[in-house]
Amino acid sequence: MAEGLLQIVVLVSGSGSNLQSIIDHIGSGDLDARIAAVISDNPDAYGLDRARQAGIPALALPPGDYPTGDTYDSALTKLVNQYNPQLIVLAGFMRILGAGFVNRFSTRIVNIHPSLLPKHRGLHTHQKAIDAGDTEHGATVHFVTTNLDDGPIIVQASVNIEPGDNAESLQQRVLRQEHIIYPRAIQWIADGTTDFHNPRPL
Length: 202
Ligand code: GRF
Fold this sequence. Notes:
Blueprint: E1 6-12, H1 17-27, E2 33-40, H2 46-53, E3 58-60, H3 69-81, E4 87-90, H4 99-104, E5 109-113, H5 125-131, E6 136-143, E7 153-160, H6 167-190
Parallel strand pairs: 1-2, 1-4, 2-3, 4-5
Antiparallel strand pairs: 5-6, 6-7
Helix pairs in contact: 1-6, 5-6
The structure holds 5-O-phosphono-beta-D-ribofuranosylamine.
């Protein structure tokens, strides 16, 4: 994948600050990628507005329109496929993707999770880290497998947990790190130094 721009599709559910960071890194020439489309399960996601503002096709696929998780997954697979992405980037996509989707795009899906995996999978990671008495917390970019918040780790960033931190202050500090490491990890994939089988660049 070292030639040309890496074609990506980004899936979001909410604010899309990680999407914005990816857009900005592409804009400044620091990321050799092209966002073919941004797709959200939530029609009101601010991430869709960010995409539109950047001139990127922005599409909503609400789960309520589908009778089962499987039919939703099939529709999402079909929609993503239309853009022929080389990489699918989950950036705050809050649905658990089914095996059909993951296997269809096997080894070509990445996610960012707000914890130092394998610690604190799932939701409410910042509070979990505080409750556990951890002294540090952070974020992980990893390839996606059918197991939740699992799969080969590409890069992590950590922050200290300070006395007086609450979930929100910690989240803000971790998010700033996310905005740095996600574009970096995608660039490693774009330049061929990272893939599913060799997740950590030399
Ligand atoms: C981030 O904390 C990310 O790690 C998690 O969901 C959040 C998305 O934030 N997967 P944003 O929508 O990119 O602002």
